[in-house]
Amino acid sequence: MSVKKIPQRQCIGCGEMKNKKELLRIIKTPEEEIVIDTTGKKNGRGAYICKSAECLRKAIKSRGLERSLKVSIPHEVYEELEKELIGLEL
Fold first, then answer.
1. Are residues 81 and 26 in contact, defined by beta-carbon separation less than 8 angstroms?
2. How much is the pTM?
């Protein structure tokens, strides 16, 4: 009997490897929008981050999100992502 492999992804904030289901996916859509993908299946280039505002702040400071998505991200988009993330934490 074979053991099912659990996909692992690295958080761009803290750098920890975690199960894909434990992380949030942030994507750049083909229309160049930056959105949180709650399903994990939307079309677009994705980056994974822990479900904490602290990891998002680390990713902003290190510009990890911009590197992963290969796009320059305006400050307003970061603020919107932080609001959505805080809403998901509750």
1. yes
2. 0.84
